[in-house]
Design brief:
There is one protein chain. It is built from 18 helices and ten strands. By secondary structure, it is an alpha+beta fold. It has four domains: 1-107, no CATH class; 112-183; 185-285, no CATH class; 365-383 and 398-468, no CATH class. The strands form four sheets. It has a four-stranded antiparallel beta sheet with strand order 1-4-2-3. Strands 5-6 form a two-stranded antiparallel sheet. β2 (52-55) and β3 form a beta hairpin. α15 packs antiparallel against α18. The radius of gyration is 38 Å and the shape is flat. Mean pLDDT is 76; it is low at 1-12, 287-294 and 352-360.
Length: 469
């Protein structure tokens, strides 16, 4: 359920009018009324959420009796395709349960804020609006830093900054292009290069790899196997690779292919003018409008680089956040377990055995731990079930119900020196040694996990700083 639904239920409001719903969708999608209606039809609201009508006499909401199959869906379609009567309502619960509406969080403008994922939260990815949180769950996620609470204005300001950043990148690219155009000579100063045997074939390609561009420049067979021995080819291949690295040429797929329109402009700017290939580009290089159209892929490449950098940083931060959260939970679990062991150890008084294992009447520590483990095994029920005589099953029982039962059994054998007064202290010392050994191991594990926890936290902070820069 959404926070909005909780508030409506507090005031016993369980329904929202169709016009009010459309207005919320217009705010969330920044669209017109017709676009809001079309949006609801596209996500097939009319097949899942019925329109209800208020009965003023009985003060209840229900479907029209003559509405198609009686489920209200026909009224929903009619409300979204024709004029409204003014008495149409949706169930708020039904809208909240219709998952496609989560995409735009249409109730955010009523609440006045969004919950935004700082890292993956269930089905919501980093940066997405987190929908359907009750107050206690939202407070829990806010405390752990999994989500942040942003007002509508803060969200709009954040999106505005992204737009301004990309707009500036595009303006800088246009300014660079204009500067390059201003420095170019006129068409008459750029003589055409006579096409060679392989160039006549290569200029027909709609897409080029760096290898094929180098073959075009050197008039070399693109399927030859000995191109590495050709110095001219190697020179042009190096020039092309540098242009790709500098994003002057932008590949758009895994094959490393570049659109021919982009290759034409790049070659023309470097005075490589081929008849029938890019000779028509030259006359527009000093024109302010046409090169922008012809080199649109280059601008898209620049914007793509920016998005790629941001995407990689987002992915890195998200990965570190997930690892950080896993370590935090593991650390918390270990800490709770350690606190339980400490509490148990405080309930058991330390034995008064001599400090030196070599003293008379003492037992080595490793043997005491063995005694403690044996006591634990003898008094702990094994896993599984036993079959009852009359049918059915019951949990398996331990060999001895208590330590005293073991002492009684040992005493019944009448072995000299194995009476209750002698064996009892050894049992107690064994239990104390086992508890101390377990505690020491947990402390070591906790310290080791704390180091991992701190390292992950530091890596996460560094990644966030790099992203902000």
């Amino acid at each position: 359920m959404s926070t909005l639904l909780d508030k409506f239920e507090e005031h016993e409001k369980e329904f929202i009018s169709v016009p009010e719903t459309l207005n919320l969708i217009m705010q969330a999608t920044k669209g017109t009324l017709e676009q809001a209606k079309d949006y609801l039809l596209v996500i097939k609201l009319n097949e899942h959420v019925p329109v209800l009508y208020r009965d003023e006499k009985r003060l209840e909401f229900k479907s029209k009796p003559n509405d198609g199959d009686g489920n209200g869906f026909e009224s929903t379609y009619r409300a979204l395709t024709s004029e409204l009567e003014g008495n149409e309502y949706f169930s708020i619960k039904a809208l909240n349960e219709f998952r496609p509406l989560d995409e735009n969080d249409i109730f955010a403008h009523r609440r006045g804020y969004h919950y935004v994922a700082q890292h993956s939260v269930g089905r919501f990815k980093t940066g997405a609006y987190v929908i359907g949180l009750d107050d206690s769950r939202a407070e829990q996620l806010l405390c752990t830093g999994a989500i942040e609470k942003l007002t509508i204005k803060e969200v709009e300001d954040r999106e505005s900054k992204k737009v301004k950043f990309l707009t500036k990148q595009l303006a800088d690219a246009r300014a660079q292009l204009a500067a390059e155009q201003a420095s170019k000579a006129t068409e008459n100063d750029k003589p055409l290069i006579e096409l060679g045997e392989y160039q006549k074939l290569l200029i027909t390609y709609p897409l080029f790899t760096a290898h094929q561009i180098a073959c075009l420049l050197s008039d070399y067979n693109p399927v030859a196997q000995d191109y590495d021995s050709n110095d001219t080819y190697r020179l042009y291949r190096d020039m092309t690779d540098v242009a790709v690295d500098a994003r002057l040429l932008t590949t758009f797929n895994e094959k490393g292919q570049i659109p021919s329109e982009q290759v034409k402009v790049w070659l023309a700017r470097r005075n490589f003018i081929y008849e029938g290939f890019n000779d028509d580009v030259v006359e527009y290089l000093d024109d302010e409008g046409d090169p922008l159209k012809r080199s649109g892929d280059e601008f898209a490449g620049i914007i793509g680089v920016v998005y790629e950098m941001v995407h990689k940083l987002d992915a890195e931060v998200e990965q570190l956040s997930e690892e950080y959260e896993e370590l935090r939970l593991e650390y918390k679990e270990l800490e709770e377990k350690n606190e339980e062991l400490v509490a148990e150890s405080k309930q058991v008084k330390p034995s008064s055995s001599p400090k030196n294992d070599k003293d008379k009447g003492t037992v080595p520590r490793n043997q005491l731990i063995t005694i403690g483990l044996l006591l634990e095994l003898l008094t702990t029920p094994p896993k599984g079930f036993d079959v009852r005589r009359g049918g059915g099953t019951k949990p398996k029982e331990p060999l001895f119900s208590s330590q005293n039962k073991i002492l009684d059994e040992i005493g019944s054998h009448g072995i000299h020196g194995q009476g209750k007064s002698t064996v009892g202290p050894h049992f107690k010392a064994g239990k104390d040694a086992l508890n101390k050994s377990t505690h020491d191991l947990d402390v070591q594990s906790k310290e080791s996990l704390q180091e991992c926890f701190d390292a992950a936290n530091e890596a996460l902070r560094d990644a966030k700083k790099r992203k902000e820069r």
